[in-house]
Amino acid sequence: MIVAADVSNVEQLEELLRAFQDSPESALAAAIVAIVLGVLCCFLGYRLFKVVLAICSFVVGGAMSGGLVYVLFGENAALTIIAGIVGGIVIAIILVLLYYVGIFLVGAALGSVLAMAIMNNLLDEPMALVVVVSAIVFGCLALVVHRFLIIISTAALGALDVIVGTAEISGHGFDLTTLVDDPGSLMNWAEIETGVILMISGWVVLTLAGILVQYKYTGKRKKPLVSLSRRSEADD
Question: pTM score > 0.70 for this model?
Answer without folding.
Answer: no
